[in-house]
Amino acid sequence: MTFEYSSAPESKAIVTIDPVYKLFIGGKFVAPKGGKTFTTINPATEEVLAKIAYAEKSDVDKAVKAAQEGLKVWSKMAPSERGKYLYRIARIMQERAREFAVLETMDNGKPIRETRDIDIPLSAAHFFYHAGWADKLEHAGVGSNPKPYGVVGQIIPWNFPLLMLAWKVAPALATGNSVVLKPAETTPLTALLFAQVCQQAELPAGVVNIVTGDGATGAAIVNHPGINKIAFTGSTDVGKLIARSVAGTDKGLTLELGGKGANIVFEDAPLDETVEGIVNGIFFNQGHVCCAGSRLLVQENIQDELLEKLKRRMSQIRLGDPLDKNTDIGAINSREQLEKITELAISGDTEGAERFSAACTIPAKGFWYPPTFFTGVTQAHRIAREEIFGPVLSVISFRTPQEAIEKANNTPFGLSAGVWTDKGSRILWTAKHLRAGVIWANTFNKFDPASPFGGYKESGWGREGGRHGLAAYLKGAK
Ligand code: NAP
Ligand code: MG
Predict the structure, then answer these.
(1) Are residues 385 and 404 in the same domain?
(2) CA angle, corner 16, sides to 12 and 30, nearest 5?
(3) Of 56, 70, 48, whose CA–CA distance to 23 is shortest?
(4) Using one digit for the tens of pLDDT, what is the confidence trace for 1-22?
(5) How far apart are CA 20 and CA 442, in angstroms?
(6) Pocket test for ligand 1, best of 37, 233, 256, 458 (most atoms within 8 A of CB)
(7) CATH number of the domain residue 115 falls in
(8) pLDDT tens for residues 432-463?
(9) Mean pLDDT, the chain, whole residue set
(10) Would the CB of 438 count as within 6 Å of ligand 1?
(11) Is residue 290 located within the same domain as residue 364?
C-alpha cells in the first residue's frame, strides 16, 4: 500500500509584490533615467511577477556617487556602531523570513522547503556572523590596521539570490566598505526586499545601493572608475571577461565561478547515507549549485549496488509546485537554463552514455527537468567536463584510490568535492590530494558563515566567509 501526499501549499498572502520596482540609490527608490524596464517571471508558472527598472550607465554612475557619499558616513562611524546596523539587518531578516522565503521561491522556482530552511536562515546567519567581526578586525589575523577598499561593486547570480547577496554585502559592510550591488536579471525581487530592510534598519543612505539590469549593467559597474573592488559570483566565462577588464587597474577582485565537483564513494562507504549525500549533492536547488557534486566517482565493485539504491531513492523525489512544502525539486530558473541542461544531456546520449531519469510528472507550464544520471560516462564526454548546472549527474567508476584522485582532479575547475568512506585516514589522504577549495567528508553541501568558501583554477580567486572572506574586503590584507 502506498500513501500519497496531499498538497501542502505555502500561502502567498504574506508577500506584496509591487507592479513596478525602481532602483535603490542613496537610500531611496528612484526611477531609472532612461525609464526602461524588464520583467521577472515565476519560472514554475511563467506568470509575470513585476516590472523591474533597467539601470543604464548613468544610473550606475549615480549609484557609485551615492556609495561614495555613503562611505563618508560609514567610514567615520565607530566599528561597533556599524556592527549594530548589521545585527539589526540580521534580526529584521529573521522577522521577515517567511516573506523572504515565499518571494524567493516565486521569483527563483526553488522549493519553499529550501528557501525556508536554508537560503533565508543562512542569509541572516551571514549578517549575524559578520556583525560580530565589525569591531574586532584587528584580531582577525589580517594585519594590525585593516582598511576597507572603499566602494565595492558586487555582481551576483540567480541560483541563490538572497544568500549570494548576504555573502557579499555582510562582509563588505562589516569591513567598512559601501556597496553597489547588481542582482541577476531573473531574480531581483529579494534584493529589492532587502533594500526595504536597509530602510527599515535606518542604514545610512548610500551604504547599500542596488541597481537592477542585465550584463551591460554589470559591465558598467566593473568598468566604473569610482569602484575600488569587484566581487563577482557567476559563470567562468563572465569571470574571465571581468578579470580582463580589471587587469591594469588598482581595483581589487574576487571571483567565485563554476565547478564540476567530484563526489567520491569508496567501497567501504555506508551506502544508504551515501545515497542521501549524492541526492543532496546534485539535486539540491535543482542542481543549480556551483559546488554541486555533479560527478559521482564510485569504486567499481560497489557501483551496481549503489546505483540500484540511488534509483530507488530517486523514485521518491517529488518534483512540482515549489510552494508546496512536500516538494523536493522545483522549477529550473529560466527557459534559457533549461535549454542549456537539455542540450548538454543530449550530448551525453549522443556521445554514448546511458541515461536514467526518475519517472516524474512534468507540469504543463513552467520549466522543469527530471532528476537524471548517466552511466558509461568517460572523461572525454562533455557531461564529464562541462558544468551542466542542473539536476544531471555523471557517474564514473574507478578501481584504486589513486585513480579516483586522478579522475577527480582531471577538470579545469576546483571548487568542491566529497569523500565517502568509513576510514578517517582515507578521508585525510583523499582531501590532501584533491585540488578543491571545499571538501566534505561523509556529507555534502553544508555551509556555514565561519567557513571560507572558494575555488582553485577556473573556479575562481579568493575566499568568501570566515576570516579569509574578511581579508578579501580589506586592502592589502592576506
Ligand atoms: P553569469 O551569466 O555569469 O551571471 C552572473 C551575474 O553577472 C549576473 O548578475 C549577470 O547579469 C552578470 N553579468 C552577465 N554578463 C556580465 C558582464 N559582461 N559583466 C558583468 N556582469 C555580467 O552566470 P549565471 O548564468 O547567472 O550563473 C550561473 C553560473 O554562476 C554558474 O556557472 C555557476 O557555477 C556560477 N556560480 C558560482 C558560484 C560560486 O560561489 N563559485 C555561486 C553561484 C553560481 P544577468 O543576470 O543579466 O545575466
Ligand atoms: Mg524570476
Answers:
(1) yes
(2) 150
(3) 56
(4) 667 788 999 999 999 999 999 9
(5) 46
(6) 233
(7) 3.40.605.10
(8) 999 999 999 999 999 999 999 999 999 998 99
(9) 97
(10) no
(11) yes
